[in-house]
Amino acid sequence: MKRIVLSALALVSGCAVFAAGAAQQSASSAEQGIEQYRQMLGEGGNPADLIVMTGEDLWKEKRGPKKATLEKCDLGMGPGVVKGAYAHLPRYFKDTGKVMDLESRLLYCMVNLQGLDRDDIIKHAISKSGEYSSDMESLVGYVVDKSKGMKIEVPQSHKQEREAYARGKEIFFFRGGPYDFSCASCHGADGQRIRLQDLPNLTKQGPARAAYSSWPAYRVSQGALRTMQWRLQDCFRQQRMPVLKYGSQASIDLTVFLGVNAKGGEMAAPGLKR
User: Fold this and answer.
1) Catalytic residue (one of 73, 109, 186, 235)
2) Domain 48-273 CATH assignment equals 1.10.1660.10
3) How are strands ordered across the β-sheet holding 217-219?
4) Which stretches make up the Cytochrome c domain (predicted)?
């Protein structure tokens, strides 16, 4: 009887070792497959390029009750200067007395320069499945594209910028919701993944640079360019947390935290995601 039990234990142990080895091999094969998939996507060009072109047209088009373009919009580098602007956002703006990210700043310009309705812009800021990218998504694509190849330098010189970073860090590590999750639950340690998706450790400079520099991105599975505001909203949804309000201070603070952690990375957005 003892011999049978020992044999059974040996069989179970052998199966466990085999399963662990198979799992490791499967993970390795999955990573190779995902990398090949990304390369295949890139071979046909990034569909975001067309959205960038639409965004440029919208930037220069006279719109709204004031029949004005966005060419006087100050994104932090001076009125109308788009080149390099995204690499230095979010940042403090003296005219509003607040730290703003790209989307909240574009919203401000569309309302104040063009006279467009704030609530209506927010309502349609994120396109639905099957729709062409929204005006906001297109404008974001255009502005982001003009920082491609530039170093990420989210400023921390103003007191409010440093306070935004501190709040963003607190939000990143805050646990809540029915699963007691935080952003750090998925993105605060090395070597984590969910299904076939690697989860970068956003508290470390290397992974933070790689992740932050590739967003906003065109999501092939959704057929749309998705912005950083959308990315954060979707993360909160997956945590089963309350919906992150579009353009809220919390969303801006969290973006500041991520952007500062990615300092020195080279912008490669709009990226291309599965």
Assistant:
1) 235
2) no
3) 224-226, 217-219, 271-273
4) 163-274
